[in-house]
Design goal:
Helices cover 39% and strands 17% of the residues. By secondary structure, it is an alpha/beta fold. The chain is globular, with a radius of gyration of 22 Å. The N and C termini lie far apart (46 Å). Bound molecules: iron/sulfur cluster. Iron/sulfur cluster binds next to helix 6. The site of iron/sulfur cluster has 10 residues, from helix 6.
Length: 471
């Protein structure tokens, strides 16, 4: 079969990342990410003898849907598979609808967090999609191709949601998550325009490398467990090293973002990975995200020696009661200590904050603002709490009548707050986010550091200009 895999193009001038639990517009200093999931599906389809075209609309030069439709028309696929997300949903609809209108008869299939979390409800509201893949997409995708190739014999296979003759959704039988991740071939990075994905701080091309999936922590706001499950599954050390070597040797890639929920969830593995990179002469620079309570001086020192340049930390709040309400399972001291140790060991830190979690008031938000500014972070991101379906927060918000959204695309942790929890208004939540962004990124210390980096690396000028416009 001929399979086209699509990351839909920008909608109303906005480009979107749709990668696992990360769904956001590329509006801040966040870099454009390679669509790793689609590259992973591409290699699986190729392995089974299908012809594959991967179109990342984020990299197209011309605005609008015409380049996408032209490319799909020239390829003449048997099936079109589109990545979707919540914030990008209106653009995803538009792309799906345009393909259906232009090329009737080609099944249009959606995948990603949106269909996984909203199930039949979301599928009912998106008639542009003929089929949807539920959960982690690799198994459902392979099931889908085999089913389509058989002429749709029998019921839809596990992980594939379809419609009955009247267009009503038929719920999918869940597909078991992949147990042995090492069975996956390396993603088809050759199909990506690798030059388009560059790190914001030094302009170097980078690639995502999936190390593990799943998280057992009970954080009430997080969508990772609903997508990847609570059980940790990871690649072997040999696999990860072979993948890094492959990307380096074949494509000259030397910068990576380790893509997993919590780096050092398995400490022994994290140490072994670092040791292995050090023993190779630390050939790669890499970033990761983790929990503050997973790192200590010894581990961070090792990570730094192994090439870690940036560590993302889910800090969320500067108030212990709010952290406890969110079932974060960490203390303010854990958070302070982790950021301080990053600084001491020379790893840059990126703190992620959420305003508007249950119990938030103007006072607790003010504490978070002060806490964030006092930590000594190198970068930060702050979001509004989003009551995604399938999360404990989503259930709580539904029961308490907190949700103000009227469209799924408003479920955007980078967008305006859509929850009125009664103790702080959505407008106040947004105002706190803006204040924290401005206070942090327009502080003399941050601007002086940026100026020094611009002098060292003028390529960053375009990035910096875009960033200041965004602020
Ligand atoms: S630790 Fe991180 S990935 Fe795990 S549930 Fe909490 S926020 Fe999500």
């Amino acid at each position: 079969m001929r399979v086209v895999l699509i990351n839909p193009p920008p909608h109303e001038g906005k480009r979107f990342i749709r990668e696992g639990r990360c769904m956001q517009s590329v509006a801040s200093w966040a870099a454009l990410w390679p669509p790793l999931t689609l590259a992973q599906l591409a290699v699986l389809a190729r392995r089974d003898g299908h012809d594959v075209l991967l179109l990342d609309g984020n990299t197209q030069r011309q605005a609008g849907l015409k380049p996408l439709l032209d490319a799909v028309g020239a390829f003449r696929p048997d099936v079109a598979v589109l990545s979707t997300g919540f914030p990008s949903l209106e653009g995803d609809h538009a792309a799906a609808l345009a393909i259906r209108d232009a090329y009737p008869g080609i099944p249009v299939v959606g995948l990603g967090q949106f269909f996984t979390l909203t199930g039949t409800e979301g599928f009912r509201e998106t008639p542009e999609f003929d089929l949807a893949l539920m959960g982690e997409p690799e198994k459902p995708f392979m099931n889908l191709l085999a089913w389509l190739q058989s002429g749709r014999q029998g019921d839809p296979p596990p992980g594939v949601m379809c419609r009955d003759a009247d267009g009503h959704p038929r719920d999918a039988v869940p597909a078991e998550p992949l147990d042995r991740l090492d069975e996956l071939p390396f993603p088809a990075v050759d199909l990506l325009q690798r030059d388009a994905y560059r790190l914001p701080h030094n302009g170097q091309p980078f690639m995502l490398v999936n190390v593990a999936r799943g998280c057992s922590a009970p954080c009430i706001f997080c969508i990772a467990p609903a997508y990847h499950g609570r059980r940790l599954r990871r690649h072997s050390l040999e696999y990860v090293l072979a993948e890094l070597e492959h990307f380096d040797r074949e494509f000259g890639l030397k910068h990576f973002l380790f893509w997993e929920e919590v780096f050092a969830h398995d400490r022994t593995f994290a140490e072994a990975l670092c040791e292995a990179m050090i023993s190779r002469g630390t050939p790669w620079a890499w970033a990761a995200t983790t929990r503050a309570d997973r790192v200590d001086r010894a581990l961070l020192t090792l990570m730094k020696r192994a090439g870690c340049f940036l560590l993302g930390l889910g800090i969320e709040s500067g108030n212990q009661v709010i952290l406890d309400n969110a079932r974060k399972g960490e203390t303010l001291d854990d958070l302070r200590r982790a950021v301080a140790l990053c600084r001491e060991t020379g790893i840059r830190s990126m703190g992620h904050f959420i305003f508007g979690l249950p119990g938030e008031t103007r006072e607790t938000a003010e504490e978070t603002l002060r806490f964030a500014l006092s930590l000594g972070l190198d970068y930060l991101q702050c979001y509004a709490a989003v009551p995604y379906p399938g999360t404990p927060l989503g259930k709580m918000a539904q029961e308490k009548g907190w949700i103000r959204a009227t469209r799924w695309s408003q479920y955007d942790f980078g967008g305006p707050s859509i929850m009125d929890i009664g103790t702080i208004t959505p407008e106040e939540v947004d105002a706190f986010r803006r204040r924290l962004f401005r206070r942090f990124y327009l502080s003399p210390g941050f601007l002086a550091r940026q100026a020094r980096e611009l002098l060292a690396n003028p390529r960053q000028l375009i990035q910096a200009a875009g960033f200041l416009r965004w602020i």
